[in-house]
């Protein structure tokens, strides 16, 4: 469900490429995080790092000048007669993070603004990655570990998603793959379990073949190819609803897909990745007063999210969630459906949930937590993003979905947002000042990053 909206550059165009431009110096905003040992968050060491903007948002022009290689939602057929040639002809440039994209950092905090109006552009949303160095993404193996962060979603209304998640994309951004000379330094190499077709560059070539401009997004389109890889959604949320979801795939790492293997449309459950995943959304599990404004976890205020990946080696057995706010620790509440029970993700829990909700269990067919664990053990890149949904208005996260289903049927109600909410044209016009802040990231063995209070 990651139909990300790209930057809308009114003069320059919202574009990406593979060579390296020289018009804007690329300076990665600094962001610190911590690795922990011991217990209760008492022994944590700060790491000085940075974040980088995904290449899909960047200005790209011909290497010999300023002519756009992609403008609005169409390719320049002169500079891009085919994917390989396009990647040779076009240069991706550096980013003005705060001025153009509304991305700022301060110490251990990252803030992503929704709509940013610059001198030459109006930008919508963003996608960023945590860096280990100037040219390499930070890799995480979370098996047997816990990942903790603070989040402020108080300025995220219905229809928006402030997401923090892991994907098995290449640590170097796929540099030198095909004609990719930009690499992780310029945010290349993205993939996820939705096998997105709006990725403009895959494995060092333009995704221009069969490109179709979007009918409802003037800055986006879709090409013949998709970019698939396993994905662990640690956090997909706004102020109304939240969920965490493993999405295993049958193949390792980034896979350039086409046709049935992408799992598009009616072939959703024939693809190489589990697009539905096995989600745990407290509201969907019947706990309608746990998360939201004024709820047990009061989303008008900052809180801490702890995710534990229980297992060892390549074996993932269980994913548990704890919450900390106002000096008190909360476990995710037990589901109210007796046919399911439990409050954490296991293979058995997913089977019961899929059966009771009447959902296709592609999660099990792909390999469930075992396959997800194998992927996580190979190392994943941390993604932090803010986006609106041009496909189904984020209703799968925060409303009744499918919209024509009986909301009293188990699994249909996911949040309190109206079924006519979340339209991108509405949220971009009426909620441009929306933003999300992720901060205080900690990572270490289970029990090392926080103290239960």
Automatic annotation (TrEMBL):
<dbReference type="GO" id="GO:0016162">
    <property type="term" value="F:cellulose 1,4-beta-cellobiosidase activity"/>
</dbReference>
<dbReference type="InterPro" id="IPR001722">
    <property type="entry name" value="Glyco_hydro_7"/>
</dbReference>
<feature type="region of interest" description="Disordered">
    <location>
        <begin position="407"/>
        <end position="432"/>
    </location>
</feature>
<dbReference type="GO" id="GO:0030245">
    <property type="term" value="P:cellulose catabolic process"/>
</dbReference>
<keyword id="KW-0378">Hydrolase</keyword>
<protein>
    <recommendedName>
        <fullName>Glucanase</fullName>
        <ecNumber>3.2.1.-</ecNumber>
    </recommendedName>
</protein>
<dbReference type="Pfam" id="PF00840">
    <property type="entry name" value="Glyco_hydro_7"/>
</dbReference>
<comment type="similarity">
    <text>Belongs to the glycosyl hydrolase 7 (cellulase C) family.</text>
</comment>
<keyword id="KW-0136">Cellulose degradation</keyword>
<dbReference type="InterPro" id="IPR037019">
    <property type="entry name" value="Glyco_hydro_7_sf"/>
</dbReference>
<keyword id="KW-0119">Carbohydrate metabolism</keyword>
<keyword id="KW-0624">Polysaccharide degradation</keyword>
<keyword id="KW-0326">Glycosidase</keyword>
<dbReference type="InterPro" id="IPR013320">
    <property type="entry name" value="ConA-like_dom_sf"/>
</dbReference>
<feature type="signal peptide">
    <location>
        <begin position="1"/>
        <end position="17"/>
    </location>
</feature>
<keyword id="KW-0732">Signal</keyword>
């Amino acid at each position: 469900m990651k139909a990300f909206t790209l930057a809308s550059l009114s003069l320059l165009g919202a574009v990406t490429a593979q060579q390296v431009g020289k018009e804007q110096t690329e300076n990665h905003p600094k962001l610190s995080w911590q690795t922990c040992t011991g217990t209760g968050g008492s022994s944590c060491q700060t790491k000085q790092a940075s974040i980088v903007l995904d290449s899909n948002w960047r200005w790209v022009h011909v290497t010999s000048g300023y002519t756009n290689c992609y403008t609005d939602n169409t390719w320049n057929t002169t500079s891009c007669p085919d994917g390989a040639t396009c990647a040779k002809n076009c240069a991706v440039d550096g980013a003005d993070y705060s001025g153009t994209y509304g991305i700022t950092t301060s110490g251990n905090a990252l803030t992503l603004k929704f709509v940013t109006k610059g001198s030459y552009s109006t930008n919508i949303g963003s996608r960023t990655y945590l860096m280990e160095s100037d040219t390499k993404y930070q890799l995480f193996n979370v098996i047997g570990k816990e990942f903790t962060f603070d989040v402020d979603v108080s300025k995220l209304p219905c229809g928006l998603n402030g997401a923090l998640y892991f994907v098995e994309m290449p640590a170097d951004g796929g540099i030198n793959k095909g004609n990719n000379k930009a690499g992780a330094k310029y945010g290349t190499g993205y993939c996820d379990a939705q096998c997105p077709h709006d990725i403009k560059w895959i494995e060092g070539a333009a995704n221009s073949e069969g490109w179709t401009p979007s009918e409802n997004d003037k800055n986006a389109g879709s090409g013949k190819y998709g970019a698939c890889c396993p994905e662990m959604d640690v956090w997909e949320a706004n102020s109304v609803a939240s969920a965490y979801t493993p999405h295993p795939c049958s193949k390792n790492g980034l896979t350039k897909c086409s046709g049935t293997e992408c799992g598009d449309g009616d072939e959703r459950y024939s693809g190489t990745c589990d697009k539905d995943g096995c989600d745990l959304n407290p509201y969907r599990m019947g706990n309608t007063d746990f998360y939201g404004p004024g709820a047990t976890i009061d989303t008008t205020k900052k809180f801490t999210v702890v995710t534990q990946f229980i297992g060892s080696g390549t074996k993932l057995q269980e994913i548990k969630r704890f919450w900390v706010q106002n000096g008190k620790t909360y476990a995710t509440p037990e589901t109210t459906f007796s046919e399911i029970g439990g409050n954490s993700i296991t293979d058995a829990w997913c089977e019961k949930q899929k059966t009771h909700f009447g959902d296709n269990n592609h999660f099990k067919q792909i390999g469930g937590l075992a396959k997800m664990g194998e992927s996580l053990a190979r190392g994943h890149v941390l993604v932090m993003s803010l986006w609106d949904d041009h496909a189904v208005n984020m209703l799968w996260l925060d409303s009744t979905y499918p919209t024509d289903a009986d909301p009293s049927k188990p699994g249909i109600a996911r949040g309190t947002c109206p079924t006519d909410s979340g339209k991108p044209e509405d949220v971009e016009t009426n909620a441009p000042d929306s933003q999300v802040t992720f901060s205080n990231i900690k990572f270490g063995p289970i029990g090392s990053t926080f103290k239960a209070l």
